[in-house]
């Protein structure tokens, strides 16, 4: 899985270079997204197709003027993003993340054993441990912040598409990564507190929902009292990097799926909601596979058993190598993969497609 990271970094850096390069675009990847510069479009299409596997998709879009969808109001998108994400996380998202984190911090246990632990004392209500208040706060924050950041970035960059300096596809990918960056700045403390609740054995005991909420709140105070206010940002650097990588790859793969599956013969084709959902699902699956090692590392850093200790990424990997060599590292890096694939693919649908569908319904009415 680690072999994906040079590729991911190369794609992201190439996309960012598109913005700052005016006359000399990156010949390796930027040509897929930038319009032709002083060259015959058909000739450039032929040359690019031989150089890059994605060029055939993007160069078709250059043969005609790409039309962009109406821009979304960032303030309205912020509210819609918060509401849609909160509903999704309460319904299924929190459960997927809960079981994923439990698997990543207890890789030797089966999903059935972990599920039994979660519902043993509290029944089905146990799956919402950590949701109130930290999970709910995180859901509202990540939905609103991402939607706002994505809309603002897209609105800022769209003039570059209108004057022909960058394509709509590239703007969509960059806006997705920027939205993830805004998320990373805001969400690290709530993720840490929610992870502490999920991985603390005391919450596996029988207690009412109100008692669980009170103890969850007390976790935050204990972290500050015992470890200092700075402990709330534990793992924030890895988490922020992870969010940018997550959403850049989710949007990149989703856009590529849209282009390859539906738009290669007509770059201005308006996709149905079903087609958008399908492309987002596939993009989420590919993204989750490529970024799973970072996700595991964040869970390891922020779990309750590591409270008060400094966790080194390098030392964690060395420990895994000492325990079982490369096979152990590979197993560690892909812990919780099945649940993460399900969670990420659905999250991509929610943030990339569902929020826009709700916005269109609001705008129409």
UniProtKB/TrEMBL annotation:
InterPro entries: MCP_dom_sf, MCP_transmembrane, Mito_Cit/Oxoglu_Carrier. The keyword Transmembrane applies. It comes from the Eukaryota. GO terms for biological process: alpha-ketoglutarate transport; mitochondrial citrate transmembrane transport. It is found in: Membrane. Solcar repeats lie at residues 167-260. GO terms for molecular function: tricarboxylate secondary active transmembrane transporter activity. GO terms for cellular component: membrane; mitochondrion. Keywords: Membrane, Transmembrane, Transport. This is Mitochondrial Carrier (MC) Family putative. It comes from Albugo laibachii Nc14.
């Amino acid at each position: 899985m680690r072999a994906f990271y040079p590729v991911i970094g190369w794609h992201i850096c190439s996309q960012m270079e598109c913005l700052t390069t005016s006359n000399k675009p990156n010949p390796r990847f930027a040509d897929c997204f930038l319009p032709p510069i002083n060259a015959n479009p058909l000739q450039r299409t032929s040359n690019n197709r031989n150089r890059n596997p994605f060029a055939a998709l993007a160069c078709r879009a250059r043969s005609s003027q790409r039309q962009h969808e109406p821009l979304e109001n960032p303030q309205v998108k912020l509210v819609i993003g918060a509401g849609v994400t909160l509903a999704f996380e309460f319904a299924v998202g929190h459960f997927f993340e809960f079981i994923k984190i439990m698997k990543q911090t207890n890789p030797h246990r089966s999903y059935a054993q972990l599920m039994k632990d979660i519902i043993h004392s509290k029944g089905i209500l146990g799956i919402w441990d950590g949701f109130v208040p930290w999970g709910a706060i995180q859901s509202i924050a990540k939905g609103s912040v991402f939607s706002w950041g994505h809309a603002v970035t897209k609105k800022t960059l769209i003039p570059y598409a209108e004057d022909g300096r960058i394509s709509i596809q590239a703007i969509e990918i960059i806006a997705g990564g920027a939205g993830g960056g805004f998320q990373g700045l805001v969400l690290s403390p709530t993720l840490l507190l929610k992870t502490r609740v999920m991985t603390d054995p005391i919450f596996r005991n029988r207690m009412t929902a109100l008692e669980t909420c009170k103890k969850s709140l007390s976790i935050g105070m204990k972290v500050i009292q015992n470890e200092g206010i700075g402990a709330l940002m534990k793992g924030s650097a890895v988490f922020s990097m992870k969010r940018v990588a997550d959403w850049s790859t989710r949007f990149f793969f989703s856009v590529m799926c849209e282009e390859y599956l539906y738009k290669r013969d007509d770059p201005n084709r308006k996709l149905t909601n079903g087609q958008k959902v399908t492309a987002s699902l596939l993009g989420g699956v590919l993204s989750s596979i490529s970024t799973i090692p970072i996700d595991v590392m964040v869970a390891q850093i922020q779990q309750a058993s590591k409270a008060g200790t400094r966790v080194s990424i390098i030392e964690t990997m060395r420990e895994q190598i000492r325990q079982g060599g490369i096979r152990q590292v590979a197993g560690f890096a892909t812990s919780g993969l099945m649940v993460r694939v399900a969670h990420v693919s659905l999250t991509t649908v929610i943030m990339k497609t569902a929020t826009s569908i709700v916005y269109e319904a609001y705008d129409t009415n």
